[in-house]
Amino acid sequence: MPEIKESFTEFVTAHPKMKFMFFGGKGGVGKTTMAGVTALHLAREGKRTMLASTNPVHSLSGLLDQNVYGAPTQVTGVPNLWAYEIDTKETIERSKQDIKTKIRWFLKFAEISTQADAFVESATMNPAFEESAMFENMVDLMLKNEYDAYVFDTAPTANARRLLGMSKVYSLWVNKMVKSRAEAQTLRELLSFTKKKQTDPLMEYLVGFRERILKARDLLTDAEQTAFFFVTLPEALPIAVIKRFINWFHDFGIPVGGVIVNMVIQKDQVRPDSPEFVRNRVAMQDGYMQEIWRDFDNVRAVVPLLDNEVRGTESLQGVARYVFPAKQEISSPMDALR
Ligand SMILES: Nc1ncnc2c1ncn2[C@@H]1O[C@H](COP(=O)(O)OP(=O)(O)O)[C@@H](O)[C@H]1O
Ligand SMILES: [Mg+2]
């Protein structure tokens, strides 16, 4: 009989320092819902919790049935819980301005007298730019460190992977830049009549940037503090997606917290005289559940397909009893899903 080896509750208990939790998976599988449930749970445990979305397609306000757009907002009726949908447009605009300034520094440093605008355009027209800007936002929130726990709706899977893959290269590059800046600076000071030290904004930026990358990398790879969870349905594509993600993450040393299987049809609701459609879905589901139990040893929860969408904290509480079952609840609802 397949079974959960370490439940979500047990996982959280076994990681008392857990602070940054992310949810990844294919679109529509329930990432936002599971992030909400997890944040609610942590807040109930007494942790000051931030539920944040860096996703340009927002849904936290919808999930909570409360406007949390643009600023950290206390969730009504839930002590210790804040939610925050980061304003994408503002972030992107700010990043563009930022990049513009930096490109000007670089051009000035290299003594190239070109308008920065063409460079700025090509840097920010890049389709990965928006994603990177949102990722920067996430890192900001993490480094500010104002909450006990952070739950991020939708894992920046590609970016986390990119950041870690690139962090060595970035570091080498920044080190080189810093070195040549320092040399140029010394030379300039030697040649100048006034022996006054000049501040160098580019240098300051590079040093700050390197520090940020190293800090973000340390946090993202610390299995005591960080975990990425993957949500799937008992269906081919969502399973394939999370298998790929999990492999990437293992390669980069990013801690995988486990798998949540969502929207599983409860078998005790299905009878021989149930419609053929339902019986066929359940037969299909059986095959994929077998695959899940065979290929993932880190299933943390199995959540039934509910008869309603999840909206508002009360409805979230209804899902929470499957994700974080109270002790006496563990056997009954789970058994029905096997
Ligand atoms: N177990 C479930 N049973 C029924 N509906 C669900 C369940 N989990 C999530 N939903 C609904 O499915 C939709 C997609 O969920 P969502 O969390 O927004 O997915 P994602 O963030 O991965 O795109 C939402 O309408 C949500 O309310
Ligand atoms: Mg979502």
How would you sum up this structure, described in words?
- The protein is built from 12 helices and 8 strands.
- The protein has 338 residues and is an alpha/beta fold.
- An 8-stranded mixed beta sheet has the order 3-4-2-5-1-6-7-8, sandwiched between helices.
- Helix 2 crosses helix 11 (313-323), helix 4 crosses helix 5 (117-124) and helix 4 packs across helix 6 (128-144).
- The longest helix has 35 residues, at 157-191.
- It is elongated and about 95 Å long.
- The termini are close together.
- The mean pLDDT is 85.
- Magnesium ion is lined by residues 31-32, 59, 153-154.
Spatial order of the strands in the main sheet?
3-4-2-5-1-6-7-8
Question: Total strand count, please?
Answer: 8
Low-confidence parts? none
Approximately how much helix is present in the residues?
40-55%
Apparent shape: elongated
* Largest sheet data: 8 strands, mixed
CATH-defined topology of the domain at 8-86 and 142-163 and 223-335: Rossmann fold
- Class by alpha and beta content: alpha/beta
What integer is the average pLDDT? Answer: 85
Compounds present?
Answer: adenosine-5'-diphosphate, magnesium ion
Amino-to-carboxy terminus distance: 8 Å
SS summary, helix count: 12
What is the H-and-E element order?
A: HEHEHEEHHHEHHEHEHEHH
- The value of Rg in angstroms is 24 Å
The first-level CATH class of the domain at 8-86 and 142-163 and 223-335 is given as Alpha Beta
CATH homologous superfamily title of the domain at 8-86 and 142-163 and 223-335: P-loop containing nucleotide triphosphate hydrolases
CATH architecture assignment name of the domain at 8-86 and 142-163 and 223-335:
3-Layer(aba) Sandwich
Q: Roughly what fraction of the amino acids lie in strands?
A: 5-15%
